[in-house]
Amino acid sequence: MSVSAMFVALQGALTADQDIREEIRKVVQALEQTAREMLTLLQGVHQGSGFQDIPKKCQKAREHFGTVRTQMESLKTKFPADQYYRFHEHWRFVLQRLVFLAAFVVYLESETLVTREAVAEILGIEADRERGFHLDIEDYLSGVLTLASELARLAVNSVTAGDYSRPLRISTFINELDSGFRLLNLKNDSLRKRYDGLKYDVKKIEEVVYDLSIRGLNKEATGGVGGEK
């Protein structure tokens, strides 16, 4: 093969790769739009009247996840199944955002931490790497860390809305989450930096709980109707 023919072949391979990436970008843009719509919807829980509308907002968010599953099915067809990590950077950010949104919805519904398997089911992808397009463990953990920051904000806004029991429950949850992360030996630099931010979320929530204690509102929160979810 001549040098010229070699480079023509290389250009063909580059063009095919660029075409794949462009197709992936189109689907990812649609996923990002759906994620933005869900985020806008769920941000309403931070408003005073939003606490009464939490079940309705969660239900609407669940409907959006139906769209996400359809978009994920499209994404799976845009690249060879065995080249997941070659193109992973294209959807990594939006997938982490979607993990956070799924985790936030599940927390608002049941005040529990969603499992990686449950998130994968919500998004319409696999939890097992061997089965194809899957939810990477580090993407799952990044989404959970974003949840921690969102709950720290929710704790503050709960007090403003007069819900004094919620920050106490959030505090318990975040401390359990922090304990869980301490069991991990994180090597990923990006994930490690994200985890370092968790201590600030813990501190922020502790300050909210301490303020409730000083004002005597924690007793009100843990007694009677105030102690219910």
UniProtKB/TrEMBL annotation:
From the record, give the transmembrane residue ranges: none
Q: Where in the cell is it found?
A: Cytoplasm; Nucleus
Check the record and name the InterPro entries matching this protein.
Translin, Translin_C, Translin_fam, Translin_N, Translin_sf
Keywords, sorted A to Z: Cytoplasm, DNA-binding, Endonuclease, Hydrolase, Magnesium, Metal-binding, Nuclease, Nucleus, RNA-binding
What is a single molecular function from GO for this protein?
hydrolase activity
The record's section on Pfam families has: Translin
Q: Which domain of life is it from?
A: Eukaryota
| GO terms (BP aspect) | RNA metabolic process
Q: Note whether Disulfide bond occurs among the keywords.
A: no
Q: Where does Mg(2+) bind?
A: 150
Entry coiled-coil feature ranges:
none
A single Gene Ontology CC annotation of this entry is:
nucleus
Q: Which family does it belong to?
A: Belongs to the translin family.
Q: How does it assemble?
A: Ring-shaped heterooctamer of six TSN and two TSNAX subunits, DNA/RNA binding occurs inside the ring.
What does this chain do?
Exhibits both single-stranded and double-stranded endoribonuclease activity. May act as an activator of RNA-induced silencing complex (RISC) by facilitating endonucleolytic cleavage of the siRNA passenger strand.
The protein in question is named Translin
Q: Which organism is it from?
A: Penelope pileata
